[in-house]
Amino acid sequence: MTPAAASPTALPPAAEQVTRERELTRRVIASFADCENPRLRQVLESLVEHLHAFVRDVRLTEEEWTAAIEFLRRSGDITNDARQEFILLSDVLGVSMQTITVSNEAYGDATEATVFGPFFVEGSPEIPIGGDIASDANGTPCWVEGIVTDTDGNPVPGARIEVWEADDDGMYDVQYEDGRTFGRAHLYSDEQGRYSFWAVTPTPYPIPHDGPVGQLLQAVGRSPYRASHLHFMVQREGFRRLVTHIFVRGDELIETDSVFGVRESLIKDFTRNEAGTPTPDGRAIDGPWEQTRFDIVLPPAGA
Ligand code: BEZ
Ligand code: FE
Asked: What is the 3-state secondary structure (H, E, C) of the chain?
């Protein structure tokens, strides 16, 4: 999809033209007047207002409209139970992240949310505190610890903490298609709200980019790579569900994360320890290992 550059000599639309365009927008918006669902009406009216404004603003050509429809058709063709090209499109346009930002309003020092991503799987194994989510995942062992609190600093015991990540080759277990499980587990915070587990240090990987969204990224010179991250979902009755990641400070992809998921507050120090350095839980490790800390603050439900 290569839109033709706007002609530098194009004149602004004449008054009669402006009237026709605005009148069409007004008529379409008026068509929702009898909608009995007020929220549906509000959303559709605003959608039409903004879509029409976009079409008028860029002076969309019929060829470009056709190319956009074709893009959507190809996105539908590649979408199946395991591949959702429309979510990827929303992700790379920042719409997923904007929806998350709007839906998870800032509340005290509550931990910020970020994108869910397509690789969460229900039914992950439960591990004890200090257990290992990595299983067969290759990568540098990484000790992760922290405390779950409310926004007044009180510990939150019994919070269910789901964690999932890709291996050192940038692959999630579900991408291997042989039924293996690694790099995912859940555990519960203890009476003091503390938690800890072994994982592998996150590394960068690309979002699926062999479809229309990948072509779009290529056309605009953008990378499909995500900054290195470890996914968290934290749930406890009485609190807002938190879906987030932590990112690795110093990762060169922090500024160009393909889905705009990075928040400054979620960038953590991952400290490297040389081989032979004693581990926090006395586990014997052959080579170097890393460690990081992520304290989680949950706002109340409904906040
Ligand atoms: C991920 O974090 O795994 C992800 C997020 C958005 C799109 C693709 C992948
Ligand atoms: Fe991910």
From this structure: CCCCCCCCCCCCCCHHHHHHHHHHHHHHHHCCCCCCCHHHHHHHHHHHHHHHHHHHHHCCCHHHHHHHHHHHHHHHHHCECCECHHHHHHHHCCHHHHHHHHHCCCCCCCCCCCCCCCCCCCCCCECCCCCECCCCCCCCEEEEEEEEEECCCCECCCCEEEEECCCCCCCCHHHHCCCCCCCEEEEECCCCCEEEEEEECCCCEECCCCCHHHHHHHHCCCCCEECCEEEEEEECCCECCEEEEEEECCCCCHHHCCCCCCCHHHEECCEEECCCCCCCCCCCCCCCEEEEECCEEECECCC
Question: What are the structural domain ranges in the chain?
Answer: 15-60, 90-298
Among protein residues, the one with the nearest Cα to ligand 1's atom 7 is: 117
- Fold assignment, 90-298: Protocatechuate 3,4-Dioxygenase, subunit A (2.60.130)
**pLDDT tens-digit series, residues 37-96:** 999 999 999 999 999 999 999 999 999 999 999 999 999 999 998 899 999 999 999 999
Mutate to test the pocket of ligand 1, among 88, 91, 99, 115 (most ligand atoms within 8 A of CB): 115
pTM comes to 0.91
